[in-house]
Design goal:
Length: 163
């Protein structure tokens, strides 16, 4: 099977956070500021990673594992910017990276809020793993991400919970 480059499946998306997306609140200078609920960001992350994995593999995918960090909070009114691409592939699985940033659109200040690595497995119509194209890292950054993802995957497999 012919390999595919990272840019062939890379996706960037943008989402406005509303009050309904908020869970906790912080109180600052007499104001109540609604913080975006973690589950909203997890859903956005899972959705974009699934799209990237589907574009790369050309088939449907199942999420096998998620490793997500919350670096700083996002607030209602922020524009969330999600950037996602394939870091690494095995015969049937892919590590997808997602970086989430929050923009305060009034000031233009952008903050890193989340980073996430997700393993997606390409599956056939019977739900069984199926082969995918190998990822072709082209740039220096893509090569670095590939090497780091390979090391992470080795660690993940040691901890894998099997049915
Ligand atoms: C993910 C799933 C399809 C894997 O099927 P399986 O029969 O266990 O298949 P395998 O053991 O051959 O795993 C397939 C590949 O994924 C990799 N993999 C599976 N789980 C993994 C994990 N937790 N971490 C890293 N890699 C993993 C395997 O190493 C294998 O890699 P390979 O390409 O080198 O062969 C199956 O476990 C499943 O259906 N899980 C539930 C998925 C789900 O419901 N997700 C939420 C909704 S999308």
């Amino acid at each position: 099977m012919k390999g595919k480059t990272v840019k062939e499946s890379t996706i960037t998306s943008s989402h406005l956070m509303l009050i309904k997306d908020s869970g906790n609140f912080i109180f600052e200078a007499g104001k109540t500021i609604p913080m975006v609920h973690g589950g909203i960001l997890m859903t956005l992350m899972d959705e974009i990673a699934g799209m990237v994995a589907t574009k790369h593999s050309g088939t449907q995918v199942a999420t096998a594992c998620i490793d997500m960090q919350f670096v700083s909070p996002a607030f209602a009114g922020n524009r969330m910017i999600l950037k996602s691409s394939v870091n690494y592939t095995t015969k049937t699985s892919m590590e997808i990276g997602v970086r989430i940033e929050a923009e305060d659109m009034k000031t233009g200040v952008i903050k890193h809020t989340n980073s996430c690595y997700l393993v997606a497995v390409a599956i056939d119509n019977a739900g069984k793993p199926t082969n995918i194209p190998a990822i072709i890292p082209e740039t220096k950054d893509e090569q670095r991400r590939f090497n780091e993802a390979k090391a992470r995957n080795e660690e993940r497999l040691k901890k894998r919970i099997k049915n």
